[in-house]
Amino acid sequence: MAGTWPSSQGARGVVFQRYSVFPHLTVRENIVAAEGFNTRSGWLFGAAKRAARDRADAMLVRIGLNHVAGQYPASLSGGMQQRLAIGQALTARPRVLLLDEPFGALDPGTRGQLHDFLTELRAETQMTVFMVSHDLEEAFKLGDRVLVFDKPRWDPQDPGLYGATVTYDFDARDGGMPHQHILDRYPSLAPASEPVPEPA
């Protein structure tokens, strides 16, 4: 991104740990609304709205909510509402997708289906995905690079005294090997106090 944050509408999609959908819209309308966000007025009309409804129905099939398309979020289970939030964020085809433990409330079967869905969509759109997860197995399954945060120092008298930092940096595509070899390609990333290894 050349050091700048994308400024265009639809550049970022966010799915929070706690599902966040519009309670006054039906399931289908929640998906359609995501496309409307990319227009100047925020609304779709006529042929554009009909086409968006067709795409929304296809998305609902993929996330397993087509049978409740006309219902409101309050009538859905927590897992179904989270699936709706994920579908809503992905409908806008963002360049960057931010996920805050999006699969934590889902049953194993649904979680596996959405893992596959997210992997397929990312390959199709080439979007960048940042995901927060407490499940390392999930992180290695879905990620290219896994950063592990932990507290290197702990004060029992004041647990909040020291913050977390990156303690491990793994290349998930390279058998989980540490990412230290990245310094060979980008020597400027090495700390000033450490000598940069010469390329072989």
UniProtKB/TrEMBL annotation:
What UniProt keywords apply to this chain's record, in alphabetical order?
ATP-binding, Hydrolase, Nucleotide-binding, Transport
Name of the top EC class for this enzyme: hydrolase
Where do the ABC transporter domain residues begin and end?
A: 1-176
* MF (Gene Ontology): ATP binding; ATP hydrolysis activity
Q: What is this protein called?
A: Bicarbonate transport ATP-binding protein CmpC
Is ATP-binding included in the keywords of this UniProt record? yes
The cross-references to InterPro entries, in alphabetical order and at most eight, read: ABC_SmlMolc_Importer, ABC_transporter-like_ATP-bd, ABC_transporter-like_CS, P-loop_NTPase
Which domain of life does the UniProt lineage start with?
Bacteria
Highest classification ranks of the organism: Bacteria, Pseudomonadati, Pseudomonadota, Alphaproteobacteria, Rhodobacterales
Report the source organism: Tropicibacter naphthalenivorans
List the residue ranges of the region (Disordered): 181-200
- What EC number(s) does this enzyme carry? 3.6.3.-
